[in-house]
Amino acid sequence: MSRSTDILLTALAPAIWGSTYLVTTETLPAGYPITLAALRALPAGLLLLAITRCLPPRAWIGRVLLLGSFNFALFWVLLFIAAYRLPGGVAATLGALQAVMVIFMARGWLGTKIRAGAVAAAAAGVLGVALLLIGPKADLDPIGVAAGLGGAASMAAGTVLSRKWQPPVSALSFTAWQLSAGGLILWLLAMLLEPPLPPLTALNYAGLLWLGLIGAAATYALWFRGVARIEPGAVSILGMMSPVSAVVLGWLWLDQALSPLQLLGAAIVLASIWAGQRANQPSDTTKGRLARLQRKIRVV
C-alpha cells in the first residue's frame, strides 16, 4: 500500500477514539473508570488472541507487559485522573503534547532526526486543540496537570517503543498481546481500587461492545499497523484527530454549539496534521530501511 493509504487507515483509529467520551457518558455507569477500562481492553485482547492463536514467546513477556502498561493501563488510568480533575479541554490539550514528546523520544530511542517542521506542526496542533476545547474558565489542578502530562508521556513512550520493538508477527497479534497485558493490569487495579459494578443494562453492554470491539480491538490494530509502517512523528500527530472527532460528534449528537474560535482551532489542527505528514516524510534512504523492515514483519 502507498504511504497515503497507510496514513488514512491509521488516522481512522484516533478519529474513532473521539467517540469514547460520547459513548462513555451516554451509555456507561459513572464512577467505575478503571473497571470499565479493563472491560474495554481485556475481552478485546482475549478475542484477538483466540482469532490469531499466537501467544508471545517467553523472551517477549517483559516487553509486552511494559507496552501494555504504557499504551493502555498507565495511560488510561492517568487519562481518567486528568479528566476528573481538569476541564475536558485542558486534559485533551495536555494529551496532545504527546505528539511533541514522540519526536524527542524517537530521537533518543530510534535515532530519528528531529525536523524543525515536525516540531512546529506538532506545536501548532497543540495550539489548535487548545482553541478547540479550552473555555475561558479553565482551572488548573496540579494533580490533574501532572496526570495529563504523565498520560501524554505514557502514550508517547508506548508509541515509540512499539516501533522499536517489532516482533515477527502480524499487527493483529501484536495488538492482542498488548491489549491482553494492559487489560489484565487494569483488572487487577480495578479489583483493588473500585467497588463491583452494578447490574448492567442492554445499553451498557452496547456501549462496552462498541468500545471493546471497535474502540479497542479494531482501532488499535490499525494504530499499531501504522506505527510499524509510518514515522513516529507522523503517527503521533494523527492522534489529534481524536479531539476534532469528539467535538464534531458533540455537535451532531448532543446539539453542542461550535464557536468561531473552535472552528479556527479545528482548522489549525487539521492543517497541522497535514503539515506534520509532510515534515515527517522519510528520505529515500529511510524508505529503503523501512521497506526492508516491513518485509521481515507480517503486517496485516
TrEMBL record:
UniProt-listed Pfam families: EamA (PF00892)
InterPro entries in UniProt: AA-Vitamin_Transporters, EamA_dom, EmrE-like
Membrane topology: Multi-pass membrane protein
Organism: Pararhodobacter oceanensis
Claim: Transmembrane is one of the keywords in the record: yes
Key words of the record: Membrane, Transmembrane, Transmembrane helix
Protein name: EamA family transporter
Entry keyword annotation includes Transmembrane helix: yes
Superkingdom assignment: Bacteria
Recorded GO CC terms: membrane
Compartments where found: Membrane
Residue ranges annotated for the EamA domain, each copy included: 7-133, 143-274
Lineage summary: Bacteria, Pseudomonadati, Pseudomonadota, Alphaproteobacteria, Rhodobacterales
Family, per entry: Belongs to the EamA transporter family.
TM region positions: 32-52, 64-84, 90-110, 117-136, 142-162, 174-193, 205-223, 235-254, 260-277
